[in-house]
Amino acid sequence: MRRGPSLFNRVSVIAGLAFLYAPIVLLVVYSFNASRLVTVWGGFSTRWYAALFHDSQMLGAAWTTLRIGVLSASLATVLGTLAAVALTRPGRFRGRLAFSGMIYAPLVLPEVILGLSLLLLFVAFGLPRGFWTVAVSHTTMTLCYAAVIVQARLASFDRALEEAAQDLGCTPMQAFLKITLPNIAPAVAAAWMLAFTLSLDDLVIASFTSGPGATTLPMRIYSQVRLGVNPEINAVSTLLIGLVAAGVAAAYAVQRRRPGLSAG
Amino acid sequence: MKRPGLAALAPFLWLGVFFLFPFLLVAKLSLSDTALAMPPYAPRLDWARGAAGVAAFVRGLDFETYARLGSDRIYLVSYLSSLKFAGIATAILLLIGYPIAYGMSRHGPAARQALLMAVILPFWTSFLIRIYAWIAILKPAGLLNAALGAMGLPALEILNTDAAVYLGLVYAYLPFMVLPLYAVLHRQDETLLEAAADLGATPLQVFWRVTFPLSLPGVAAGALLCFIPMVGEFVIPDLLGGSGALMLGRTIWTEFFANRDWPAASAVAIVMLATLIAPILVYQRRQSRLLETGG
């Protein structure tokens, strides 16, 4: 018998969640504030959203960020899935520990180090910095997250299914595409989502590896925030939060609809 | 020994080129001198001159940048204050995160699932935006002081102080502390707790002598997961801290973007990496072992 939560347990959980959510809720509420001042509620208004849609620099940055996010998340998901398959494959292979080390190190490594080292790489090879260098950098950072998510799913996947398919005449490639991939699809989708949001969110690595004409949304937000609180930033933040919330809700619904595949 | 296929090698090739190899460049640059050129460092490797070029390049390298790091106090100060910020914030995170994770693990399965989602969700929203939200709360004419004023309390000056940096660090990294703690706490064997209680232990004794020692792996995982990236944190000290809130991530940023001193930025990055390599290896080993046991 599990003891139920005590009053102390309830209070700590509620206080913790309040701490996590209060700033986000305030941000969303104040994005609809007609007044420019944070402390004055000037009535409900969508004027900051209207201003946002006339801010061509902000819109341009958003478009760049979106394209980088889709491209790098897709690349990272493919590479990350391959890495996860290699790491969970039965039987040890040479250098497996080094490989798993390469997957886990970027997860905790400070972003400034990753950003600086990638920049030096691009400079050393004389590559012009811009859209592609940011996309490659984000792929490098996010493929490790993707690998970890898919790996967790593969760890509980029954390998016998894949072997059975091969016994029945599938090539290893066919077995992977027809049996394994459909089974781990929810995890692959989740990996893409996470890679996409991480790319959408990144300021540090993009600042190091970006060049003229490839300003991303976080870079634009950062330069505005340095000048002080700006209601337009509240509006763009709310839109971003809404976008992510919709994505998470969609991912949750997909998993819900396929209980047989996501269970375990 | 099984040989991995070519497709399986692709991601590791990618990481080799874009993750491992660039570290050599950082190490190399930290031994170069600053120069008024673009890119702003010398010597540069001149492949066209063959062996003579390589020799000239190697002769040009020295440890001058590191000597500079040792003599200028600002680097030492930012190094120590990085460790201090990250260390104290990790301790605060443990104190706050443990009761939350423990409270979550005490709930029934359905509630646990919902609470888990609730803790993970903020992680999906932009880090920059969540830090930015605190500026509006903490600034002198912000929401906190408006609330304090309404209650007749004196205003607090928090933004641009060390307190704001701690607050930002704790806020941003709380899910990273709660999740590993929750993972060990909710799997704990209830019968052990019952046995301890049957043998006459008070609830407090049960916690300190059974629950807490058994949760130490989660404590270690959470502490590493928070401490390592916090040492190199840039956004939080930059946006919430005052000019005195020196941290290594911020120093690298300033050297690189404001002072255009690429060798110094690289040398600081190498020093930070050397400091963090041990905790990173410990973290890696733990994760790999978890994977081996199917955890």
Characterise the protein shown here.
The complex is a heterodimer of chains A (264) and B (295). With 264 residues, chain A is an all-alpha fold. Chain A has one domain: MetI-like (MetI-like fold, Orthogonal Bundle). Chain A is built from twelve helices and no strands. Helices cover 75% and strands 1% of the residues of chain B. The two termini of chain B are 24 Å apart. In chain B, strands 1-2 form a two-stranded antiparallel ribbon. Chain B has 295 residues and is an all-alpha fold. Chain B has 14 helices and two strands, in the order αββααααααααααααα.
Task: Give a quick set of tags describing it.
heterodimer; A: 264 residues; mainly alpha; MetI-like fold; globular; B: mainly alpha
Gist of the model:
The complex is a heterodimer of chains A (264) and B (295). Chain A has 264 residues and is an all-alpha fold. Chain A has helices at 7-30, 47-52, 56-88, 96-108, 111-124, 131-155, 159-167, 172-201, 204-209, 217-225, 231-257, 259-262.
Greatest interface and its residue counts? A-B, 96 and 94 residues
Helical stretch tally of chain A: 12
Residue windows where pLDDT falls under 50 for at least 5 positions of chain A: 259-264
- Termini separation of chain B comes to 24 Å
Q: So what's the overall shape of chain B?
A: globular
Output the structural class of chain B.
mainly alpha
- Determine the CATH superfamily of chain A: MetI-like
Task: Please list the strands of the largest sheet of chain B in the order they lie side by side.
Answer: 1-2
